[in-house]
Amino acid sequence: MAFTANSLADGQVSNAQAAIYTATAVKAYLKNLTLFNTSATEQTCDLYVKRSGGTARQWKRFVLAQYEHADVIDKEFLLGSGDSIEAVTTTASVLNYYVAGVTEA
Protein backbone atom coordinates (compact mmCIF):
# COMPACT_ATOMS: atom_id res chain seq x y z
CA MET A 1 0.00 0.00 0.00
CA ALA A 2 1.15 3.50 -0.83
CA PHE A 3 1.00 6.36 1.67
CA THR A 4 0.98 10.00 0.56
CA ALA A 5 1.34 12.94 2.97
CA ASN A 6 -0.09 16.24 1.75
CA SER A 7 -2.52 19.09 2.11
CA LEU A 8 -5.95 17.49 1.76
CA ALA A 9 -8.28 20.50 1.67
CA ASP A 10 -8.55 24.21 2.36
CA GLY A 11 -11.18 26.88 1.92
CA GLN A 12 -13.84 28.78 3.81
CA VAL A 13 -16.64 27.29 5.89
CA SER A 14 -20.18 27.98 4.69
CA ASN A 15 -23.15 29.12 6.77
CA ALA A 16 -24.93 25.95 5.56
CA GLN A 17 -23.69 22.56 6.73
CA ALA A 18 -21.49 21.03 4.04
CA ALA A 19 -18.48 18.74 3.62
CA ILE A 20 -15.09 20.40 3.96
CA TYR A 21 -13.21 17.13 3.33
CA THR A 22 -14.27 13.72 2.04
CA ALA A 23 -11.86 10.77 2.02
CA THR A 24 -11.58 9.34 -1.48
CA ALA A 25 -8.71 6.95 -0.80
CA VAL A 26 -9.05 3.66 1.07
CA LYS A 27 -8.15 5.51 4.30
CA ALA A 28 -7.24 9.08 5.27
CA TYR A 29 -5.32 9.81 8.45
CA LEU A 30 -6.03 13.44 9.33
CA LYS A 31 -3.10 14.98 11.19
CA ASN A 32 -4.21 18.61 11.25
CA LEU A 33 -7.46 20.53 10.86
CA THR A 34 -7.17 24.22 11.64
CA LEU A 35 -9.87 26.90 11.71
CA PHE A 36 -9.11 30.65 11.56
CA ASN A 37 -11.62 33.48 12.02
CA THR A 38 -10.90 36.40 9.66
CA SER A 39 -14.00 38.33 10.76
CA ALA A 40 -14.24 41.21 13.26
CA THR A 41 -17.17 39.36 14.87
CA GLU A 42 -17.17 36.15 16.87
CA GLN A 43 -17.89 33.01 14.84
CA THR A 44 -19.32 29.70 16.03
CA CYS A 45 -18.29 26.62 14.07
CA ASP A 46 -19.96 23.22 14.42
CA LEU A 47 -18.10 20.20 13.03
CA TYR A 48 -19.66 16.87 12.10
CA VAL A 49 -18.37 13.43 11.16
CA LYS A 50 -20.33 11.60 8.50
CA ARG A 51 -19.45 7.98 7.85
CA SER A 52 -19.97 6.76 4.28
CA GLY A 53 -23.70 6.32 3.70
CA GLY A 54 -24.47 7.35 7.28
CA THR A 55 -25.84 10.33 9.15
CA ALA A 56 -23.71 13.35 10.07
CA ARG A 57 -23.06 13.38 13.83
CA GLN A 58 -21.94 16.50 15.67
CA TRP A 59 -18.32 16.11 16.73
CA LYS A 60 -17.03 19.44 18.04
CA ARG A 61 -18.00 23.10 18.48
CA PHE A 62 -15.71 26.11 18.54
CA VAL A 63 -16.42 29.77 19.27
CA LEU A 64 -13.66 31.90 17.78
CA ALA A 65 -13.02 35.60 18.42
CA GLN A 66 -11.56 37.91 15.76
CA TYR A 67 -8.27 36.49 14.37
CA GLU A 68 -8.46 33.49 16.69
CA HIS A 69 -7.63 30.00 15.47
CA ALA A 70 -8.41 26.50 16.69
CA ASP A 71 -6.48 23.30 16.13
CA VAL A 72 -9.32 20.79 15.84
CA ILE A 73 -7.38 17.53 15.81
CA ASP A 74 -5.08 16.85 18.73
CA LYS A 75 -4.31 13.29 17.62
CA GLU A 76 -4.59 11.39 14.38
CA PHE A 77 -8.18 10.99 13.12
CA LEU A 78 -9.08 8.15 10.73
CA LEU A 79 -11.59 8.42 7.90
CA GLY A 80 -12.52 5.53 5.65
CA SER A 81 -13.35 5.82 1.96
CA GLY A 82 -16.42 8.04 1.55
CA ASP A 83 -16.33 9.37 5.14
CA SER A 84 -16.39 13.14 5.50
CA ILE A 85 -15.93 16.06 7.87
CA GLU A 86 -18.74 18.62 7.59
CA ALA A 87 -18.85 22.14 9.01
CA VAL A 88 -21.15 25.13 9.39
CA THR A 89 -20.40 28.59 10.78
CA THR A 90 -22.23 31.78 11.72
CA THR A 91 -21.20 33.85 8.68
CA ALA A 92 -20.20 32.42 5.30
CA SER A 93 -16.75 33.08 3.85
CA VAL A 94 -15.01 34.40 6.99
CA LEU A 95 -13.84 31.18 8.67
CA ASN A 96 -10.87 29.62 6.88
CA TYR A 97 -10.00 25.94 7.22
CA TYR A 98 -6.97 23.81 6.38
CA VAL A 99 -6.81 20.00 6.45
CA ALA A 100 -3.57 18.02 6.22
CA GLY A 101 -2.84 14.35 6.59
CA VAL A 102 -1.84 11.07 4.99
CA THR A 103 -3.84 9.05 2.51
CA GLU A 104 -3.50 5.33 1.92
CA ALA A 105 -4.37 3.95 -1.48
Give the structure's gist in a few sentences.
This protein is mainly beta. Helices cover 0% and strands 62% of the residues. The chain is built from no helices and 9 strands.
How would you sum up this structure, described in words?
It is a single chain. The protein has strands spanning 3-12, 18-22, 27-37, 43-50, 57-64, 69-71, 77-80, 84-89, 95-104. It starts with a strand and ends with a strand. The model has no long low-confidence stretch (mean pLDDT 95). The strands form 2 sheets. Strands 1, 3, 6, 7 and 9 form a 5-stranded antiparallel beta sheet that branches. It has a 4-stranded antiparallel beta sheet with strand order 2-8-4-5, with no helix packed on it. Helix content is 0%, strand content 62%. It has a single domain, classed as Jelly Rolls, CATH 2.60.120. It contains no helices and 9 strands. With 105 residues, the protein is mostly beta strands.
What gap, in angstroms, lies between the N and C termini?
A: 6 Å
Output the helix-strand order.
EEEEEEEEE
State the major sheet: 5 strands, antiparallel
Rg calculated over all Cα atoms: 13 Å
* Helical proportion, percent range: under 10%
Number of structural domains: 1
* CATH architecture assignment: Sandwich
CATH class: Mainly Beta
Structural class: mainly beta
Number of strands: 9
**Averaging pLDDT over every residue, what do you get?**
95
- Give me the number of helical elements: 0
| Proportion of residues in β-strands | over 45%
Shape: globular
